[in-house]
Amino acid sequence: MTKITSLTELKKLRDSLKEKMESYSLLDHPDSIIQVKVAMATCGQASGARPVFDYFKEELEKRNIPAMVTQTGCMSYCYAEPTIEVTIPGKNPVVFGFVNTRKADEIIERYIRKGELPDGVIPVNYETVISQ
Amino acid sequence: MKQKQLRIALRNCGVIDPERIEDYIAKDGYLALGKVLTELTPEATIEIIKKSGLRGRGGGGFPTGLKWEITRKVHGDQKYVVCNADEGDPGAFMDRSVLEGDPHSVLEAMAINGYCTGASKGLVYIRAEYPLAIERLKIAMKQAREYGFLGDQILGTGFCFDIEIRYGAGAFVCGEETALIHSMEGLRGEPTVKPPFPSESGYLGKPSNVNNVETYANIPVIINKGADWFASIGSAKSKGTKVFALAGKINNVGLVEVPMGTTLREVIYEIGGGIRDGKAFKAAQTGGPSGGCLTVKHLDIPIDYDNLIAAGSMMGSGGMIVMDEDDCMVAIAKFYLEFTVEESCGKCSPCRIGNKRLFEILEKITQGNGILEDLDKLKNLGKVIIDTSLCGLGQSSPNPVLSTLDNFYDEYIDHVTYKKCKSKVCKSLMTYIIDEEKCIGCTLCARNCPVNAISGERKQAHYIDPEKCIKCGACMEKCKFNAIFIN
Amino acid sequence: MELIKLTIDGKPVEAEKDTTILKAAKTVGIDIPTLCYFQLKDMNIENRPGGCRICVVEVKGRRNLAPACTTLVSGGMEVNTHSIRVLNARRTVLELILSDHPAECLTCAKSGSCELQSMAQQLGVREIPYQGEQSTYRKDTSPAIIRDVDKCIMCRRCEMMCNEVQTVGALSAVNRGFMAVVAPAFEMNLEKSTCTYCGQCVSVCPTGALTEVDHTRNVINALADPAKTVVVQTAPAVRAALGEEFGLEPGTLVTGKMVAALRRLGFDYVFDTDFAADLTIMEEGTELLDRLTRYLEGDPSVQLPILTSCCPGWVNFFEHHFPELRDIPSTAKSPQQMFGPIAKEYFAKKLGIDRKNMIVVSIMPCLAKKYECQRDEFKVSGDPDVNYSISTRELAAFIKLANIDFDAMPEEEFDKPMGESTGASVIFGTTGGVIEAACRTAYELYTHKKLAKVDFNELRGFESIRHATIDFNGLLLNIGIAHGLGNARKLLEDIKEGKSQFHAIEIMACPGGCIGGGGQPYHHGDSAILKKRASALYREDAGKPIRKSHENPFIISLYKEFLGAPGSDRSHHLLHTKYFDRSASVFVEE
After folding, report:
1. Whole-angstrom Cα distance, residue C282 to residue C292?
2. Which of B139, C272, C275, C450 is most open to solvent, judged by the fewest CB atoms within 10 Å of its CB?
3. Residue B413 neighbours by CB under 8 Å, 6+ apart
4. Which residues in chain A are contacts of B153 at CB distance < 8 A?
5. Rounded distance between C-alpha atoms, residue B240 and residue B243, angstroms
6. Does the pLDDT at position C590 exceed 50?
7. Which residues of C are catalytic?
């Protein structure tokens, strides 16, 4: 790893990372891919996020669905843990609550494959500050 | 529709992978640090924080910029930046969420503080009960060093800064900044009289800037978006947002981040989804065990530092526990007192002994042995403890008692004069009775009673001996004819 | 310096910056009650944890009440020390403290000298409205000190003394909240800790939580036994303080009355530890000169500085904390322990009685002496050279118990031969005294010249660490003096690092020396009392016809008759000791 030694260098890195990240969710971009984020803070893990995370990783590969499964922090819906967020390129992210492996299977089969929204969708109820 | 929640401190939580610094950088991470190091003087940076109106999110609400300025101005060959991650309020976990979901934002802010105050060392005081937060913090620190955001000659400038972790053993009082510092020094975790404040004489007697996790998490955004933007959010004297850990009898238990000045009604009904099972809202405890309860009459007060104090409670670190009609407020006050009795360090007499006596009186009342004079004792004792205790713990521990006395005096009278607990929480004040009309003498209750308190012939109405009954409720649960009720 | 102007109870006050409200109030005659606060002004000792909250006052514009002992004055401050709010709070806090304190005043050792008791009287507490559970803890009895932690009010004075002043580190707060107590590490018993029994914790404890182990009953039993010959010795510092217990002005010398009272109590022989102190000077002075001479001759096996060894608290301290330096202190026993074998091996034989039928009692300003006389190396076939050591306070209580009107006692003389002493031995009781006494003798023995001036004023005073250079006829001797173990530690660290420039060092465990010992009447933080005691001893010294130990005629005849010469084999056998490494003896009980 090379150290960042100036603000300009940092901005350049930021721009390239941002572009790459955004490209995932563009429908017609070659890098676009389905993204699954699993909330894996202590609370999420305590309510079973780890097996859900593993399930998505293994099952999406088994079922030949190109996807990126990542961990993230708390999504703040404690009452609905484990929670996950699925982004299909070109669509708004959708958050699901009370996800276990059975639910995960349903999400893969119904939402990711067919685009149907199963139960358990948590509506977004916040705005996030955009840094700049 | 404009959302009620605005995420500033939690902006990256649940969004980025906390173990990948690249995710953070993509979200403008470390840009604020780069900006202050290359474009701003420490004074100008402090000026931004001051102008933003940010106040300490750990509970006290002290103006953050002013604290930074004081630490900067105090002379010291070595200064320290301390992050208070000793989150100890029951039911509060916003700091843990930030550290587990977005650790870099805290590291970045600490480095900015180091630049502003002239400190080259940072210390995160975190409770050992937060292993995942510690792990992610360690990963973040390693990555930040690799990228050159921590260490020597940060971002090609002459600024050097690094961070170490110090572990707390989970004492609530160690969230008090002087106690926290003593604990970091390896001494007994107990507070000392202020002044001197840590900004003047802190860790190892050196000037130390102590801020809480959530406070730090706001800093990079303020630098990036400007003081005016931040100051435009919130109420007149409380700027920005506050994260609350919404818990208790509410549908959507979870973290919420709302602009200062949002009302309790909005938080509970619009964000929290209302009270569970459609029951009636009774009270919300804010500020943890040091706070007081807000009631129906406070539902439309804009929540900020000053309004909460005026309402007999406090912001605290942001715990918000919602109670419904089934909660007994005397029992709630007792619950919080039990916590403070457990967590008092024992240094000053009013907190060490006074809280114990408060608890004992409450226990007496919930056991049905209270007398009216006890209520006067609670009031006087509570006021004296607040008036005379050494640190914030004792100065606020009677709040749950005093505010329930203020707002739910009737419930105390019920317990003391009529020996009744309407919420049916205080066991000693309950009697289980069998309705002779409804009882068919099936004997199921008698067979399930663990203490053989129920007698009666088969096919005849049964009877519960109140002397023997331990009020476990097993009989009522088993009865198929709803023949058993509580008086 | 710029003065800060404020008002206290309406009175205008001017105070220097960094003055506390408590001290500023005192300057205009306002005495704010305190409990945990403690100060020994001239010794730089102060305890102000701000814990008891008795001294709270109202400061205009401040949200809560302010502890006067820790709150600093500021310009324009308006302080009210007796508003209704203050009085109610102060009284409630005291009621709380009392609600967690056993009401055992009738039988408590501290009754009458208890600061909590006085405070309850001062604030007029007649009932305790906040009754409830009392915190309890096991009672811990060591050879010298009893801890009855149920009576502890967490003032932390003992902790301050033990850690900051004495740097012994035996006591500190453990546990939390209502269960918080002051205890040795891991809650072990004091006996298993690094405690030196200096007793300074006892001398500052406001209540009966820390007291001495009382041996008066054993003494009474011995006196009542016709088969026993009971001999008593009294330490120098006792005569300068005992009178305080009978309402006499501090600094009143009560030597003669004390002797008379001891006779009335039934002791068969009333002797003076001062006699043994003269003996100590002979042995220690000789050792010093011997080591010095060999050192000057270049003998590499000789260690300097030589350290005094007459203070048992200090001996315990270096055995625990600096065992690697245990070859440096003089091997001479303390005066108490020199007295014992002379009484039992010499005087008893002269009387023709078996040593087992002689009981030696010592009256000491000290609690460590209780432990010292129980040490195995000071016993012959299980029979201790000194049977019981009781403190100045215990003697006063004994005299009161026996219904003796102390003030009406005539002035009587000590018995002969072991009651004869010189001025040199009297000043053993104050810091700097031992080394001054040693210098008086060593000078004359070394130079074979008569001292022009007996008083070594350069060695006197109360500064914590002092040094002086004494001219031994061309040989410049560097003398160091430390009182208080924390100060001793500094000098020892220097020795360890090879930085010490001293030839001889006097060390006393207690601040002020024995006059401030853990067994003395309680001074309640009044350091003027210590100074008066010290000057009383210098007065007695000045009034003595003989002021140099080697001129004591009974010492001279003791050597001639029994011991031979200082440092002789018999002297070594009876009057010298050895030290042990106790650093590893601290352990936690399973």
Report:
1. 15
2. C450
3. none
4. 5
5. 10
6. no
7. 284, 287, 310, 330, 369, 372, 377, 514
Domain residue extents for chain B: 21-231, 241-322, 329-416, 431-486
Whether residue C567 has pLDDT greater than 70: yes
Report chain B's C-alpha Rg in angstroms: 26
Site of tokens 């601040």: C511
Burial degree of A28 (CB within 10 A; 0-12, 13-18, 19+):
exposed
- pLDDT one-digit tens code per residue, C43-63: 889 999 999 999 999 999 999
Contact B14 A85 (CB under 8 A): yes
Question: Which domains are delineated in chain A?
Answer: 23-122 (3.40.30.10)
The two three-digit tokens of residue A115, written as one number: 């685009």
Q: Is the pLDDT of residue B432 over 60?
A: yes
| Probe site for chain C from B306, B342, B353 (most C CB atoms < 10 A) | B353
Is the ipTM higher than 0.90? The answer is yes
CA C197 vs CA B436, C145, C317, C367, C390: distances in Å: 74, 7, 9, 6, 14
Binned at pLDDT 50, 70 and 90, residue B487 comes out as confident
Residue B242 in tokens: 């506050």
Q: Measure the CA–CA gap between C470 and C441, rounded to whole angstroms.
A: 13
Q: Residue A124's closest chain B neighbor by CA?
A: B3
B269-290: per-residue pLDDT in tens? 999 999 999 999 999 999 888 8
Q: Is it true that B329-416 and B431-486 share their CATH fold?
A: no
Closest CA to B64 of B9, B123, B111, B113: B113
Cβ distance C427 to C481 under 8 Å? no
Closest chain B residue to the Cα of C134, Cα to Cα: B353
According to DSSP, residue B287 is labeled S
Distance CA C206, CA C111 (A): 11
By the CB < 8 Å criterion, does B187 face chain C?
Answer: no
Nearest of C453, C530, C437, C460 to residue C203 by alpha carbon: C530
pLDDT greater than 80 at residue C126: yes
* Statement: C115-213 belongs to CATH 3.30.310.50: no
Q: Which residues of C touch B343 (CB under 8 A)?
A: 176-177
Classified by CATH at the fold level, domain B329-416 comes out as de novo design (two linked rop proteins) (1.20.1440)
The answer to whether B254 contacts A128, with C-beta atoms less than 8 Å apart, is no
Pick the CATH number of B21-231 from 3.40.50.720, 3.90.930.50, 3.40.367.20, 3.40.50.11540: 3.40.50.11540
- Give partners of B (≥3 CB pairs < 8 A): A, C
CATH architecture designation of domain B431-486: 2-Layer Sandwich (3.30)
pLDDT in the model for residue C586:
61
Where exactly are the structural domains of chain C?
A: 3-82, 115-213, 217-575
Question: Is-same-fold flag (C115-213; C217-575)?
Answer: no
Q: What is the pLDDT of residue C489?
A: 97
The size of the B-C interface in CB pairs under 8 A is 109
- Write out the E strands in C405-514: 465-472, 475-483, 504-508
Q: Does C127 touch chain B (CB under 8 A)?
A: no
What is the Cα–Cα distance from B200 to B227, expressed in whole angstroms? Answer: 26
| CA dihedral sign, ordered A73, A79, A83, A88 | negative
Q: What is the pLDDT of residue A39?
A: 96
User: C119 and C54 in contact (C-beta within 8 Å)?
Assistant: yes
Mean pLDDT value of segment B59-71: 94
Q: Which fold has domain C217-575?
A: Rossmann fold (3.40.50)
At B23, give phi and psi (nearest 5°): -60, -40
Helix (H) or strand (E) holding A87: strand A84-87
DSSP 8-state secondary structure symbol assigned to residue C48: -
Q: Does the C3-82 domain belong in CATH 3.10.20.740?
A: yes
Report whether C393 contacts C242 (CB < 8 A): no
